[in-house]
Amino acid sequence: MSKVTMMRRLVLVWLMLLSVTARADYSDHRNRKVDSLEQVLHSGQALSDEQRILAHRDLMWGYLQTDGKRAEANARQVLALSYGHDQLNLRTDALRILGMIAYGDERYDEALGFYEWALAVTDTMRTRNKYKEKDIDDNLSSIYGSIGNLYNMQDKALLAIEYYQKAAPIFEKYGWRESLTILHHNIAELYQSMGNNEEARQHYLLAIEQGKASGDSLMVAVPQKGLAKIYLDADDYTQAQQTIEEAYSYFASHRDEEPDANAELLSAMVRLNLMDGHENLPLAKKYAHQAISYDTSELSSETRYGVYAAAAMTEMKEGKWKNALDYALKSVHENDDEATLSDVGNFEMLANIYMQLGNREEASRCIRKVRSLLEGFSTKNYQSGISQMEVLYDTEQKQKIIEQLNREKQWHLWGGILLSVLLLLLALAFFLLWRSVKLQRKTALFKARIDGEVAERSRIARDLHDGLGGMLTILRLKAEQDTPKAELLQLLNETATELRHVAHHLMPEQLLKNGLKTALQDLALSVPGGQFSYFGNDHRLNQDAEVVLYRCAYELVNNALKHAKADHIDILLVQEDERVTLTVSDNGKGLDADKRSDGAGLLNIAERVSHCHGTLDVASNGDKGTEINIILPI
């Protein structure tokens, strides 16, 4: 289990308990008198089946937090007795308890089996008039939340989000604010772990909104803590300062109750006071000292590493490189199985410190470590994403088969009874045909989305390998040679810049905030010899078209600089009512006519343009440069 997963455990368990307690008539099962109930069951007095099943129900809840084996034994008794009296609601309760116990023991496949069984029982409840809609919804939201937690603890973000989002409409329907707060917080953390900070930011804001509506200060402070990291990563000083201070005002007043959160926010305040243009070293040192003063046994490992990293940053600012080294060594996982994304930045920091201390061998080792981690994360995320997409697709297919079987069963049943009612049968046939076409279309769209995700993950892996990987290799070779320290530091800075460029290419901030025109203008200004021109209607396109055009422009500009050796690049955007045209031209050495379709870059661009039903035209004339036109319909 990764350290990122461990960091989410508290909130996940919290959500599980809330999902169990969403029902308005809930009472605290943990305070029930299990001893007296045991005496009743074993006293020898005659009990009806109803009294016996209710006693076992209370015992399974009562033992849940203190004695898992007894809780499981009583849950199995409830499960067995529920069949004799058709108690579907009690059956789902017992299955959820069994799932929770398996979940707590990390028997994840077994837990999923119990939860899916509970979903099937809940689906049967819909066919019985004796169960209220709210009871059914309560069961569904609890099970969806539990399955989401299950996948979350296994770092299967896509699957976890899928089930959290199934629970959200039910929480909204009944106004369960606390559950909504934690749900959006969990979704935000999952998106943040995947590097999708914009989606994470939206869900953190939703969590804060619901937390304020609930009136619980803790519900507001927890998502604010996560939101602060996003603003810090985006170098948004104003938003980061406001969010950190609001969260810190709560956790500082609960220092003994929430040491982990308090230390985490202190580390964030160190970063805040070391931001370019807002440096306040004395204040940063003060917060770093407060964070270090915590008993490390009170902190989670990830928070502890963050505290040491913050302390190392303050020592580096003062040029105290040996002190910085002591702290930085405590901020990383040497074991790759336990490593997180924060280790990438911390090993880069270690490389810088070793270079300042003249230890090139260790600096080179840290650089190799950065590359190894990046390649490992890329491969792991790619494989995990494919696996999760397959599960989602299989689930969709299974659901389609089940629904199809149910429809056939229903058709045969009513066909035998209502054979004489021809018009009704015809209407039913048309309805079934319409539903079948709708399901097939939905499946086709879902498969197309899977294919798009696979292609995009492959492109990200190539960007990391071809761009950042090459620079890290050069840096390692330079570090192993007798290269001046100033040159190595310059290469290290260029590597960090390339990493930021890769991240910016994935989803540039200007593109999200101000649109394609502003993003392309910034791109032209960022490269030597770049020039941007714009004609036509000045309004935003849909986000898919803007992302495709920006990424195409970015790749074409990079190709012109790296391969064509161009010193002048023109970017032209023409926006008409029915189409938008992007033209990128350069004065480089041009493309060979027989190699225009071989390059991976042009193939990537062609795939993106084709996905948006657009056209791509390449014109190149020897040493006179290249002009590439992309047209997308609006």
Please describe what this structure looks like.
With 634 residues, the protein is mainly α. Among the domains are: 1-174, Alpha Horseshoe (Serine Threonine Protein Phosphatase 5, Tetratricopeptide repeat), CATH 1.25.40.10; 374-497, no CATH class; 508-633, Heat Shock Protein 90 (2-Layer Sandwich). The protein has helices at 3-20, 34-41, 49-63, 68-84, 88-104, 108-125, 133-153, 157-174, 177-193, 197-214, 217-233, 237-251, 259-272, 281-292, 301-317, 321-329, 342-356, 360-417, 422-480, 485-506, 509-514, 516-525, 543-562, 600-611, and strands at 530-536, 569-575, 579-586, 615-620, 626-633. It has a five-stranded mixed β-sheet with strand order 1-2-3-5-4, with helices on one face. Helix 9 (177-193) runs parallel beside helix 11 (217-233) and helix 17 (342-356) packs antiparallel against helix 18. It is globular and about 95 Å long. The two termini are 46 Å apart. The model is unreliable at 1-31 (pLDDT under 50).
